[in-house]
Amino acid sequence: METKNWKAWLYLLPAMFFLGIFMVYPLIDVLIYSIEEGYNFASQTYQGVGSYNYAYVLRDPYFLQALKNTFILVMITVPLSTGLALLISAGLVSIKPLRELYQTIYFLPYVTNTLAVGLVFMILFKKTPYTDGLANMVLHFFGGGTIDFMDGPYWAKMFVLCFYTIWVVLPFKILILTSALASVNQSYYNAAKVDGTPAWRIFWKITLPMISPSVFYLIITGFIGAFKAYSDAVALFGTNLNAAEMNTIVGYIYDMLYGDSGGYPSYASAAAIILFVIILTITCINLLVSKKHVHY
Amino acid sequence: MGKQVDYEKIEKSAKVRKNVINTIIYVLLTIWAFVVLFPFYWMILTSVKSYSLYNSEYIPQLIAVSPTLQNYKDAFTMVPLAGYFLNTLIFTVVTTVLMLIVTVLAAFAFARLEFRGKNVAFTLFLALMMIPNELVIITNYVTITNLDMRNTFMGLILPSVASVFYIYLLKENFAQVPDELYYAAKVDGTSDLKYLFKVLIPICKPTLITITILKIIECWNSYVWPRLVTDEEAYFLVSNGIQEIRENGFGRENIPAMMAAVVVISVPLLILFLIFHKKIMEGVSRGGTKG
Amino acid sequence: MKVVLKHLTKKFPNRNKKQPDVIAVNDFNIEIPDGKLIGLLGPSGCGKSTALNLLCGLLKPTSGKIYFGEDDVTSLPVENRGVGMVFQNYALYPHLTVKQNIIFPLENLKGVDKLTKEQMSEKAYEVAKLVQIDTLMDRKPSELSGGQQQRVAIARALVKMPRILLMDEPLSNLDARLRLQTREEIRRIQKKTGITTIFVTHDQEEAMSISDMIVVMKDGVIQQIGKPQEVYDNPVNQFVAKFLGTPPINLFEGEVTDGKLYIGESDVMLVQNVPNQKVVVGVRPEGFVLDEDGALCCELKGVEVMGRDITVVSEHENSIDVEIRSIISSENQVDTEADRVHFALKREKVYLFKVDTGERIRF
Which of B280, C107, C140, C265 has the lowest tally of Cβ within 10 angstroms? Predict the structure, then answer.
């Protein structure tokens, strides 16, 4: 059948056309951009080649702020959302009535527009001259003081961002873990029960190792996703993230490319490559750790 | 007899413990269901409060005493919400259809056809899966700008058409179809294309549905790329529209009207979800990534 | 440990809510003496696994009582029953080594029973030696053969010295050769430990060969309890007779008239005290004797020589099954060219059953 080589490539042609123009070429191009110093977008000229763009980005306070925000966001939301998803899924599979209803409800955030629902969160947390917002009302109820979540202290804003991020990413994790848990052969549980194993020990010693591939998959994708956080922040704090001190690395890339401070594809490229290196490193570490702990 | 009593105690405490644990589980699950549902409730609630009522509530009320649809009217008349809607619809449908064509053809070539360089091509192709969108979006932005395609549907759609992951997913599914079917078809003189449409596609329909659903969700919610290549309102998608409404929207901070807009743009996917929730959840667990 | 079941019943609600409940186990009354190996035998879907799950406590009975020795354990939760169980698919934890698997039940012990690491290890090796897997302790279950996995599962069930040992189809996942070997092994281990052991199987040969006592079930109801040979020689009904023995018993339509048993036209045997009626006649394969003057005349279809024995395959118009298989000693000569073969019947290998209920008619 080798005679029909050209025919096979014909089938591949559309995919190769799109991938070539919008993935392979940009990949090379972004590397070139990132080392072209003093690139001028309008005249498409540059002055030299070197690592100046990287140096600039790494010294840019906005980038450092974005880096810090992103890392905090990752370190808080990934473990918390994975743990919470594990807890909720474990609860879900242990009940019978209402299980499907809850499963459906929990999945709702997945199919909502991040930007749109982010607006709702903003309103819930926002303090205006007219109202303290619902979140503060709840705080008052528990005897707390008023906090300006959206325009106030850094940690208050970070809290809202983390909270919203977790709300957004949980549906996927719950779904994956629930199906992983449900696919563990019941006879393992029966065997453990016959041997008088307490429930918590069953969970740690049997359930968790059995679903560890799914858990690590979620941790790896969770890290990658959280490092690329952007829309959630925009949804909550608007497009001017630098002003809100809530920018993320991806946000910084877009700001450099376009927007009020935009027009610097070189800086954007350098930042994008730095992000890629970070993600690659973290993913490799994750894979190494999972090799040790995942049982297939 | 002493032992007998002991057993009864064990039985009883086991029963009590089971009930307590069950209750705790239900309480926790209900709390989380509440956390998930509350924003939806709040957006609908706020959307039916009148502007003046909303601003006069220092302490937000949990029910609307006199619901009004005025905000929905405003959402459609004061901002071009219908336009955003239509744009998103066009964008979603065209992108999804093109994506399906490209994906099916490529997956078929990788899964079924033998040709020189296939393995190399596929390996390179898999390597592309690791590349985050953020890395290539910069050049794409420049490309689209240079091609003068900013603020066109072409500019919006073209970079979103090919997806390495979906091709991979479908290829794996195609590859599971027994070779015998292909040889049988060949013996009967069926052309490759006919085999693809008459045999492979019907067999792999579930995966195709999965891909379609995932792509629709992705398109409907896409924000970053549209934001980069459109700055004319006439080409805004709903995500950009909502951001625009938020920043310059109704002339003043008209939160109830904003919420009405949010409800309107959330409804299509929610309806889709409520109808197909089993299929969607199944599909996402097979091939979804997010977060 | 003696095990007593009194009126044990388990009903499952029917999937179709309008239908009546499914009775998986119907009014079981058994007394299982201490230290015996019991085979719970029946075709698939007869409720034997349900019975086993009731015993170990994974299921709660709808009504009735279960006693271990003198203790009523009916509603005792599974973890407090102190039973060992070997699951059909072994349920070995794939992420733990053989040793960790065996130790697992010991690590659950609390309070006064709590063991040190050394004690656990010692016990694990002890039981591993018993089932002869002590050289495999550091392997993962996926690195073991089916037979080895089976042994590990038995070791894990035995390590905590259970009051009773339960096995669910212990041999069904093994190939034929291993099955023979393993069943002897189970017998040996059971004898050595003296733990009352109940195993479930659908394979009558398996049950017959190693059990001290077999319980034959059908549709949730116990048909017969007894020593394997007794049950084989003296089945209470057509089902039990048909279920035990390979090749299975041959059934004929027959009739008793004036103390004589007829199969078709031929009067094959005298049966006094049996009132006139239509009957089902069962003849064990070994109940046929080649005899030129024998009353039963069958159409010869073939002869299979198996060394020690000869299987004569023949047909008869009143036979309920298509073929009649009879086993005779190889000392006999069979004329394979002949069209017909004549049999006399051994009286003690012939059983009569009622046509409607299948109940045994004694004579």
Answer: C265
